[in-house]
Specification:
The protein is mainly α. The protein is built from 3 helices and no strands. 0% of the residues are buried.
C-alpha cells in the first residue's frame, strides 16, 4: 500500500510540474514585441492625427509624440529586464 501511495504521489507531482512548466512557457515574451508595440503606437498616433485633423508635428505637440515613444521604450526596457530575471529564476529552480 505504501508503494502504491508513493507512485500516486509521484504521478500527481509530475503532472503538476508539467502543468506549471506548460503555463510558464506559454507566458514567455514574443520576439519583436517591442517593434510591434512601436508600430501600433505610430499607427495610433496616425489615426488620432487623421481623426482630429490636427498636425501633431506642426501644432507644437511634437513633444507629446516623443514622450509617447520614450515611455513606450522605457516600458519595453523594464519588461525585458523583468523577463530576464524570471528566466534566470526558473533556471536556478531547475538546478536545485
Amino acid at each position: 500500500m505504501d508503494k502504491q501511495a508513493e507512485v500516486l504521489i509521484d504521478n500527481y507531482e509530475s503532472e503538476r510540474n508539467g502543468e506549471i512548466l506548460k503555463q510558464f512557457n506559454s507566458l514567455k515574451p514574443r520576439p519583436f514585441a517591442g517593434v510591434i508595440s512601436l508600430i501600433l503606437l505610430m499607427a495610433g498616433l496616425y489615426a488620432a492625427n487623421s481623426i482630429f485633423d490636427v498636425e501633431l508635428m506642426d501644432s507644437g505637440y511634437y513633444w507629446l509624440v516623443f514622450a509617447f515613444i520614450g515611455v513606450s521604450g522605457a516600458i519595453e526596457s523594464e519588461s525585458r529586464k523583468i523577463n530576464k530575471r524570471i528566466d534566470l529564476l526558473a533556471k536556478l529552480l531547475k538546478v536545485t
